[in-house]
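Entry under discussion copied across for reference:
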Amino acid sequence: MTVTLRTVPPNLREAQAVAELCVDFLRRDLLAFYPQSRFEPVAQGLDSASFRPGLDFALIEEDAAEGSGDAVQVELFDVRYRLTPREGTRFTPHDRRMIRAVGAVLGFRYYHLFQRSHGARLELFQGGSEDHYVAAFVEPSVYAVPATRPSRVAPTLQALRTAALSTYENRRVSTGALLLGAGGDPDHLGYPTAPDALPYGPELTSLKSIHRLCDGRRTLFLVDRAGKLADIIAIERWASEMPGPSLPAVPCARAYAAHARATGASGHVCVVLSPNQEIKLFAGGSQAFAFAHGRWRILDPASKFAVWESAVAHPPLARVLFQTALDLAESRHGGLFVVVADPGAAVGRLIAPHDLLVAEAPDGPPAALPPGDPLARRALHYLARGRGVTELAPPVLEALAGLDGALATDRAGRLLAFGAILRHDASCPTAPPSVEGARTTAALVASHFGPVLKVSEDGIVSCFLNGARAWDL
């Protein structure tokens, strides 16, 4: 059978409906990453006379966008749109890079659908759009016209998504891969990639035995520059051979410190499916993205840690508390950390006197300690009395912070209380709305006395400053 293809008239190649669809995709996907933002046209809406041929996405820099304030402006089909962040926040350089990545993927897809004379690259339309946005953030050159090399990050994410739906011997699968950057290749292991090496992608997950070859925490698959499965590596040993400090510049969960260090140089990228069924992506020496609860979250831990460190004004204390919060989040344990600016003002108003670790040893616990009596916890105060948070071993601090209630310190790092049930006066004019959960309510109230970190059992770490939520991680 002979099929005759008719030439598409030029006026139909970039129809208004297609342009409007692209704008809808841009709006939908930007708001998926920044759900509390607003996306709106700066001037008139899209019409047949207002756009030029070609998607031509552009992010308008702040100095060029007069009156934009905390918002950013993007240009699509020669029409400008404003993206305004959540009240009280600003778009960081990390966020601007993400916005560019979304526009780059949409533009590249449009280019291959409507502006190329030969066949489109089908891999651009495989998997979720969000996976390609994350891949474009990490590998922007792969999504820039006229690139021809396909992304390795997108199929790796698709492989981990597929693995997350699988079980092996009635247990959830955990796995991961290290994608070699421009500065490294398997030659450092003494031999090149085997000529019969398999491409690393979702098709590989059909081999059930592959789920036993690496666990994502201790061992990873090594993917070379061509996207082939080159080897299996022990991540601790591999990361120890990388140049640079032994600890990542920005704290991350201890279980994945080696994964972060491994991406600190040479453009390596690490992607892991954790036992919690969360997909983690490490790039540039820190965890850049997390996929959980059906959506990707852009983390930007460097800027968020900087906000926390500035509020605490004690770098070693800020790092220890931040690190412990991330470890609790990884183990899916809740917690609350309060750095009290003025202990004298907090005792009695925020911290009950019987929860305070007194400097001197008491005469001993009361003769009878009924179950549920708040004085009962005082019998264990001697275990941490007079200790500094930075002096405690990390597992000990994590155990104290994991108790019901809050762990409170002063700005010098002296431990004031652990397992403390914080007081909350509902008649206070700064009281948070009653619709908040108990731990969030306590965090909002405590933040009037000093910076607060809250850890949710779903793995989210939040910072509260001066009665408001500053960020989520």
